[in-house]
């Protein structure tokens, strides 16, 4: 699950979030507006309908308007940062090449599980390796600082500038490389994730979250970015953010309904401390106990759902994945390509669709 493996760590390079799995554009797919949608309307509707079916509801689509970009910059929690962090952030923001407000999505989740993965993105990545859906590596080298390695030459460093239970701000720098790219693409980026939670009358917790992504490319890359990367990056970023959401939702479901499976998975996880492993297991047991109590009060069945049914939406349709021909354009005297990617399988989900009360995002 390459694009999930790159996009889902919640603290990974925006470069890779935006560029991985870019697909070639046909003439009728090139966006005519600032929204940056590169899919045909049929593809877009089909994908959104699929995520609706599995309980990932889009409240607002992604956008890249200049007004929204100004508002997002002005809303960054600068007062929470040190003078050194402010200087680093301002340096990047003064030369932003790409901006994207990711879709506002709403879904059911265990709030503690969501916050745990935001606090420990390396543990989320370790679960992918244990499930054999990615070889992606994310190692915490110091408190709030991570080194990322996609295994294909794409590497980067991530620093958490600010984090509270509902707001995370990170800065990244790195190098994107793949067989489809002649020369590595370097970039710096800032990502902000905001979330809020609302408890429903039946005890379920609904999360509403969104993200802002600012990317700075080297000056000599700006023209190429405008012609090649920008049109495809928005759609890819939106799709990967939905897959981030899918992963968190799926893991929450597994904790609540199949805790033994999660505990077995934890024994296969590498690259994390034993203390974090045990914390992951304790969180799973608590999520399971809370869900059982909630279902009993609501007179709902407490029988577990089959593991395959919960995890199925994360599987790749390998047999149906046919790489498209890459779009080739000159980049600073060389030839750079952006290759095709894959989509998650369109499968059923145990997520029921019921009326929910929105959780407003904090400004």
How would you describe this structure in keywords?
alpha+beta, 9-stranded antiparallel β-sheet, two-stranded antiparallel ribbon, 11 helices
What does this structure look like?
By secondary structure, this protein is α+β, with helices and mostly antiparallel strands. The chain has 11 helices and 11 strands. The protein has helices at residues 2-7, 14-19, 41-53, 66-74, 83-93, 111-119, 121-130, 222-257, 259-268, 274-297, 307-311, and strands at 57-60, 98-101, 104-108, 137-142, 145-149, 155-164, 167-176, 185-199, 205-216, 327-331, 334-338. A hairpin with a 2-residue loop joins strand 10 (327-331) and strand 11. The longest helix has 36 residues, at 222-257. The model is unreliable at 1-39 and 316-358 (pLDDT under 50).
Estimate the strand proportion.
Answer: 15-25%
Order of helices and strands: HHHEHHEEHHEEEEEEHHHHEE
Total strand segments: 11
Biggest sheet statistics: 9 strands, antiparallel
Uncertain residue segments: 1-39, 316-358
Whole-number tally of structural domains: 1
- CATH fold title: Alpha-D-Glucose-1,6-Bisphosphate, Chain A, domain 4
Helical/strand content category? alpha+beta
What share of the residues lie within helices?
25-40%
Radius of gyration: 20 Å
Number of helical runs?
11
CATH superfamily: START domain
Question: How would you state the average pLDDT, rounded?
Answer: 75
Supply the CATH architecture: 2-Layer Sandwich
